[in-house]
Amino acid sequence: MLVFALIALLVFLPGGGSHERHAFKVPYGEEMTAHDFTEAHLGEEDAVVLERLAESGRPERLVEPYVLVLFPPREEGTYCTYFEFSDDPKIFARLCFSETSGELVEKLKHDVFKPLRSATPRGQAV
């Protein structure tokens, strides 16, 4: 009985069994380098990725239509942020994070001068 009560406490106490999100604040900015892009890994938290970039990226609602059409529609339950490569301005990147866990679930980049190739959701495409 005591073991059951301890397990129940661990499950229902904050932090016991649920993933705690880290609060973070980064300044607005919308550029990254090709190297920065390779350093972002699927499964990393938004706080980790965006703090490393030291920029927030451009939210989807502020992205120009000619950039939005480079990428497939975002998956439900995610939020995406957009960047332009500072070392190759014709390349745009989109990083999408889970709204609940904050994990990076999609990492895509695309050249504005090349036709859109199939981009796999929850993965990487060039």
Write the layout of secondary structure elements.
Blueprint: H1 2-12, E1 31-32, H2 34-39, H3 46-53, E2 58-59, H4 65-68, E3 78-85, E4 91-98, E5 104-111, E6 124-125
Parallel strand pairs: 1-3, 5-6
Antiparallel strand pairs: 2-3, 3-4, 4-5
3D structure, described in words:
- This protein has 126 residues and is of the alpha/beta class.
- It has a domain at 38-120.
- 23% of the residues lie in helices and 24% in strands.
- The chain has four helices and six strands.
- The protein has helices at residues 2-12, 34-39, 46-53, 65-68, and strands at 31-32, 58-59, 78-85, 91-98, 104-111, 124-125.
- Strands 1, 2, 3, 4, 5 and 6 form a six-stranded mixed β-sheet that branches.
- The radius of gyration is 18 Å and the shape is globular.
- 22% of the residues are buried.
Which geometry do the CA atoms define? globular
> Could you list the spans in which at least 5 consecutive residues all have pLDDT below 50?
1-18, 119-126
Mean pLDDT score: 80
Number of strands: 6
Estimated helix fraction: 10-25%
Given helix and strand content, the structural type is alpha/beta
User: So how many helices?
Assistant: 4
Strand-residue fraction?
15-25%
Largest sheet: 6 strands, mixed
How far apart are the first and last residues' alpha carbons, in Å? 56 Å
Element order, helices and strands? HEHHEHEEEE
Rg (C-alpha, Å): 18 Å
Write a short abstract of this structure.
This protein has 126 residues and is an alpha/beta fold. It contains four helices and six strands.
Protein traits:
23% helix; alpha/beta; 6-stranded mixed β-sheet; 126 residues; 6 strands; disordered N terminus
